[in-house]
Amino acid sequence: NNADQISVTNGITCFNPVQGDTRFATGSGGCGGGIADDDVWFKFVATADTHAITVNVFSIIDPVIELFDSCTGASLNCTMDNQYFFNNAVVGNTYYIRIYSASAEGNGNFSICVSTPPANAQCLLAFPLTPTATCNDMQSTYNNTGAPDKVYFKFNASYAGYTIVVRSSDI
What we know:
Layout: E1 4-5, E2 9-10, E3 18-21, E4 40-45, E5 50-57, E6 63-68, E7 75-79, E8 83-87, E9 94-101, E10 109-116, E11 127-128, E12 153-154
Parallel strand pairs: 1-4, 2-10, 11-12
Antiparallel strand pairs: 3-10, 4-9, 5-8, 5-10, 6-7, 6-9
């Protein structure tokens, strides 16, 4: 129960990612991918029903994110992606995150962040747009600071030849 506490960032921007390092860590068994001989643990208290868990890779190779419902509880998900969206969290519950390298010799350092992203940070929850003859502005937030860095929109095309304009000074 020595998991490091992560404060959840409200919104898409992660201001204080937590530093982690799997070098000299010991293993406690693996999930569906890789060799969990170098795992480190973190925990957070859910503040919303959806959270984004993001690992920024520095020297760790093939990081695995595994999420648990308690310290000795059930594995809720295991992914070899650098980001995992956890839906259906119970606000107030503590969840545990295990990070390890799927590679036998891939241990190293990283940073981890837990944030509450906008709904359209997931493709399946893309915001609908209605095509019009004139510009239809839709505002969204994008960043590249260790939190979800994409947002999705969708529309039904009724003919070929739509023009999509993205206005930003930061892209």
